[in-house]
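In the previous lecture we treated proteins in isolation. Real proteins rarely work alone, and many bind small molecules. This record shows how such a complex is specified: first the sequence, then the SMILES for zinc ion.
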Amino acid sequence: MAGYPENRLHRLRKTAGIRDLVRETKLSVKNLIFPIFITYGENIKTEIKSMPGNYQISLDNLPGEIREITSWGIPGVLLFGLPRKKDETGSYASSSTGLVQEAVRIAKDTNPDILVITDLCLCGYISHGHCGILDGENVDNDKTLDTYREIALSQASAGSDIIAPSGMMDGQVGTIRKALDTNGYTDTAVMGYSAKFASSFYGPFRDASDSSPSFGDRKSYQIDPANWRMAMREIQADVDEGADIIMIKPSLAYLDVINRARASYNHPIAAYNVSGEFSMVKAGIAAGIVDAQTIILEILTSIKRAGADIIISYHAKEAARWLTEG
Ligand SMILES: [Zn+2]
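The predicted 3D structure, ligand included, written as tokens:
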């Protein structure tokens, strides 16, 4: 085998043309999903302070948002709802006329080709802000599954393409799959938030979705950031329960988990490039420390290189612009 000086790797980096030719990972707008926060009221478009360029919008502003997203070639959206009323059981989450359910219908009416993914959890709908029904101060896993079943059916009946349970309850994917199948929604897919870590990177999202727990934290149901093997067990559980897509959340501090999942599973992998990752980059750009376009495209490319097929990102719109305009 020839080494240096016969072997010179610089040859493949000399010009833009050859760099394009040998590029291994090609980020496309078709890999991106944009999250949307739907709020009650009329003609609302409120910028989320910690997430510049992202808004809470009311249903009447959704068609414009969907048209903008599809005009950039972004194939789909992930919907979250901020209801007017919260209660002890999060009952509004499964209302057939709830914000997310109405948003699904409006998105599909605006553009029947758009892929609509609906987040399924209780934290935005329940007065204490935890992801499940409580028994004392602890989440009652099995009681929570009963409510997840109802939410899934209401979202599927509204026309959601993919139901995405994010509460990290044991058995959530299997429960939802069974409920969908026994009610005729065999074509509705399930994307498990399979490996969702108890992360500090979710801070800005909790402003955006008004879903902070009023006491305690989520460490009893989300994964300890130190545990990749536990993450693989969670992914295996979702695969066994019939998940169509598996997700790792957050992305950047967990690229190793994405990569290990890629090596072990043939399922499509989604990665959630979460709010804290987004806001830190935005703060860096605002402070003049980093360049917006190059850093954002580098980050998204690295998530894809690690093994993600689908990247859910608040950067999706700006990245789509750069990817389409070149
Ligand atoms: Zn939740």
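Summary for your notes: Residues 141-158 form the longest helix (18 residues). The mean pLDDT is 96.
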